[in-house]
Amino acid sequence: MATTVLVPYSIPSRGVAVPTALKLLMGRLRPYVDRVIAEPEAVEKIVDDMLKDYTTQILLVVASLEALHLPREEFVRVLEDLRRFVNELKSVGIDVEEAVDLLIEHDMWKHRQLIQNRSRYLEVYVKFFTEHPGEAQSYVRTYFAALLLFLAITKTKDLEKLRLLTEIFARYAEELEAYTATFDLMLSPVPEEERRVIGTASSPRELRRVLQHERVQTHD
Question: Residue 30's pLDDT band (boundaries 50, 70, 90)?
């Protein structure tokens, strides 16, 4: 998915009107979120089922387009509310701050690229999905698993369930961080010698390591 920017809109916000498609999408996702609450370890299977849902896919596309036109001031307000929610969880001993930051960073990075650097970003995105289909599938699963897990956290009051959801969410958010870094590196101008090594990477972490190594060598 090009962008979603769902995370800030997943919690109650003060005086912020949720865009229409995002509101419909959140409702459409609720059955999948409930399944994640019931069985957190099965999140990837639940994601696979969600991705077969045609209506959900259409709403994701429309919500992504809608998100591109949201004013900065609105993002600021909903992010403040998200911080409030994270702090409320901290008060009961549940710390999701780092994982939430990684998920927001990924969403907002994609959003920023589509606003500021659309052509190059889409070129990189398409290449990633066409040249690394297996890894692309893993990325989609990782992204939506992290998203559904976070949405599940926002809908759960049971502390034991929250702890389990938070633990699993943190794992997926960490994996998502590797994809954010990988896409960022791929978006930078790539010399010819680096193009040859990109295809040797077997995972986003490996790709990031290879690219970073090549660039260190270049600057030495």
Answer: very high
Q: Find, among 112, 149, 145, 143, the residue nearest to 10 by Cα.
A: 149
Integer Cα distance of 90 and 96 in angstroms: 8
CA of residue 204 relative to chain centroid, distance: 15
Examine the domain organization and report whether 24 and 106 are in the same domain: yes
Distance CA 212, CA 210 (A): 6
Q: Does residue 183 form part of some domain?
A: no
- Short-list 19, 4, 32, CA closest to 74: 19
Distance CA 79, CA 93 (A): 21
Cα 156 to the center of its chain, rounded Å: 20
List the domain range (segments joined by +) for residue 22.
7-177
Judge if pTM exceeds 0.70.
Answer: yes
Query: Are 83 and 163 part of one and the same domain?
Result: yes
Spatial neighbors of 82 by CB under 8 A, at least 6 apart, are 7, 8, 11, 100, 104
* Measured distance between the N- and C-terminal CA atoms of the chain, rounded to whole angstroms: 37
